[in-house]
Amino acid sequence: MAVKISVFQSLVFLFYRLTYHATH
Prior knowledge:
Layout: H1 2-23
């Protein structure tokens, strides 16, 4: 369970970085 949450959090973080970079 913890591993799944960790992976999900990583994906969200990467998506956030990509969105932030694209916006700016």
